[in-house]
Amino acid sequence: MMRYYLFFLLSLCLFPLSVSAESLHIATIDLPPYGFLDGKEATGLCYELGNAIAREAGLEPENQLLPLARGMKNIANGSADMIIMLPNKEISVSADNLGPILPSEIVVFGLAQTPLRTVKDLRGKVVAFVRGSRYFTCNFSEIGAILYPLHGYEQGLKMLLNKRVDAVMGPKLGLYYTAQKTGLPRRAFGRPLTLCAAQGSVFLSKKVDSAVAARISAAVEHLVKTGRVQQLIDKYSLEQR
Fold first, then answer.
1. Would you put residue 104 in left (φ > 0), alpha (ψ -120 to 50) or beta?
2. Of the candidates 127, 172, 128, 167, which has an alpha carbon nearest to the alpha carbon of residue 151?
3. Which of 182, 165, 45, 46 is CA-nearest to residue 109?
4. Is residue 73 part of a domain?
5. pTM value surpassing 0.85
6. Shared domain check, 133 and 118
7. pLDDT tens digits, one per residue of 149-177
8. Burial call 200-220: b when 16+ CB within 10 Å, e when fewer
9. Are 39 and 89 in a shared domain?
10. At what angle do helices 45-56 and 210-225 cross, to 10 degrees?
11. Which of 70, 94, 168, 228 is deepest in the core (most CB within 10 A)?
């Protein structure tokens, strides 16, 4: 009897269960509204979208909320398979871009009493941004601002209200959503200055099997065509004025 039991244990090691082999490990950026905890439950635009992509591809999502820098690191070391984020040079080294899926507008928030009219108004100013984010399409390095990395949008907006930074940079959706959901006084912020347009994309680790990658790519295309992606965007798009 013991011999058969040992053989069973050995077979589990040599031939893992198909459920495990069919899992998709997703890193979701821990930033509202893209990924956050609602009570004890994880949710968010990219969290739901990542799960939808996995299931459409016939895979079981294993989704984890992580800081942006940690999510990119997990993609690079192979402990995560997929992440939805704005393109940058670092992620392109370890992951393939399956294409844009979330239109985004990169803006800068300042205070109402010191309005930002052009990018020249940012020269020499301290601008907070989420650690790990790189807005290469905006050519921000040419503006001459002093960049201040931090953990999230809420921290940046509160520092702005307390005049510890001069401005906060990030996706318009993320900044508006955070300001409204946390009850920060919207009138205290000036009209956002638009830097550039960007596209959040689905990035898949280069270590993922090509056949599985093809299924995921087809799933992304299907969700876009059927309007499921737009439904999720609308769900998390609070009034922006």
1. beta
2. 128
3. 165
4. yes
5. no
6. yes
7. 998 999 999 999 999 999 999 999 999 99
8. bbbbbbeebeeebbebbbebb
9. yes
10. 120
11. 168
